[in-house]
Amino acid sequence: MKFWRYSRWDGTQPPFDHRRKEMIDHFMENIMKGMSPGTSLAQMLWEGFPLAGMDFRVMGLEEMVAALEEQKDDLFSTYTLEKIFEQPMEDFRFLLQNEAMKRREIDAKPPPSYDSLPPGLLEKLHSLKAFDFIDDESRRMHDAWQTRRQDIRDLYDFYSEYADRFYGEQELDFDKALALMRQFQELDRLQRKLLSGRLEAIDPEQLRRMLGDDAQTSFNILLQLPPTLSGEGLVQGAGGRLEMTPRGLRRLGESAFGRLFYPIQKDRRGEHQGHAPQTGDLLPDSSHAYRYGDRFDLDLTRTLLQSIPRGATPAGAIALDPDGFFVREREQLVTTTTVVLLDLSWSMSRDGRFEAAKKVALALDHYIRSRFPKDKVHTIGFSTEAVELKGRELAMAVWDAYRPFTNLQGALQLAMQLIKRSGNRNNRVLVITDGQPTAYYVHDELHVEFPETINGLSRNACMATLAEVRRVTAQGMHIDTFMLDDSPVLLEFTREMARINKGRAVLCRPGKLGELILVEEIKRRGGRT
What we know:
By secondary structure, this protein is an alpha/beta fold.
């Protein structure tokens, strides 16, 4: 007979699939925001993350450190260290008085007086170390304090470092102060370990004792985070050298696509299918009765369903008739080249613009490569200059804080080169930006310029970019521009691009970018949303 024993999950057990997926999703979301794998992992460890499937929020190291600091602050505000050495001092007075009384009884030489001893407690102990006590009680008391020299030394060090920070009213004797010191030091040591990131040096049981069950559970989950990522084959390396694996890069694209597409799919449930041009995907009813001259691509299911009502042959087989044949409809397939121009200039760091734009680029890249492998898809990142972002470069892309200008002209030139290289006449260039051009080339020489006025135009850069739009339009490029800023000057520039190219100029918020671009791309290629 088999038995199963159930207990409260404390984070040490291997995570369930939905929990592991949530951990990975949070990691991927950070990558989409522009973090490196190492930074993404560090952010999750430091700030924590929610596990919606468990209705539980994983405490990060920052929260644990703050909770420990709060406990230390409570100690500071509750206690005072002003009188922690009064007890041993009084004991010394008492034992010397007792010893003096005993010696007077036997007419022996008196002991040293309390006031004649050195001022410090340790110094008093040292001066009496060789003294031969006659009174038994005085000897026992003296010997007891001699054995506690290290406690006195430790408490002195603690007092000298922290006395000024304890401002409460509750007074402590020596032993209670010693207990307080050890409690404070335990809090401080644990806090330092958390801050150092040496998680393997931390005892989860100690964490539970000091911060509670949720902290222990959270810590156990944090310990599982690095091996979960590496065990799933998403990352390799360690620490600051953590890198995405090819499998991790594919998972990133899948995650970006899923985060954009599936929420939109739920929102659009019940809407009518659009009339976007078909690209060869087959729907269940995309077949018709065979006509002479049709390609004989038999729809076997509909053919058999049409033939069954006729009955069987004498041999028991289904009677087929040419009039009952159904063949599939297929449109002529064409290949296309899609190029995403992703603005990496500094201004894209605001209001979630870069995250939204990068997520769309990753999702489109994944969708086209996985569903239409014969098509070409490229992403070009442009700030002061333009560069193609392939695979890992796209996954690790982040807005450029050091080259803050916007060179749309250079991005269009590079896009045209990629389109010509692909050999496809069908192309689509998607520009995702939030600013006007401020960089351009003149005979291969790079120029940059600031706008003439606040909210004004960079005249030369805009003229050079519009001239480039005319050149690439004449060569067959189709441009759709998605503007993430509603400045009138930028909108006017975008409209002028659309007028020249006969493409679209769309003003949109970052949160709607995925719906505007990804859903349209899927519908354009014949998919359903």
